[in-house]
Design a protein that fits this description.
Elements lengths: L17 H13 L5 E3 H8 L3 H14 L4 E6 L5 E5 L1
Antiparallel strand pairs: 1-3, 2-3
Organism: Halorubrum halodurans
InterPro entries: DUF7123
Protein name: DUF7123 domain-containing protein
Length: 84
Amino acid sequence: MSTARAEPVAVEPAGLSEKQTRILEYLRANADDRTYFKSRLIADELGLSAKEVGANMGAVADAAADVDVEKWGYSSGTTWMVTT
């Protein structure tokens, strides 16, 4: 018998689009360093528009098992609070 433990892997539903997958990967990669993310800054990093980020964030939040995404503020663009 093997006593090795497999690390848990977050699995997203197959229904995530390529944009949604990229957004989720970006949030996962940066959630340990930051808590608040502006849509326009995510968009700049990923080559998307802020509107595309906002339109896809609901699906990302629903699919992510390992991060919590909450709409946080609207001043000068939408801000998202992301926690692990």
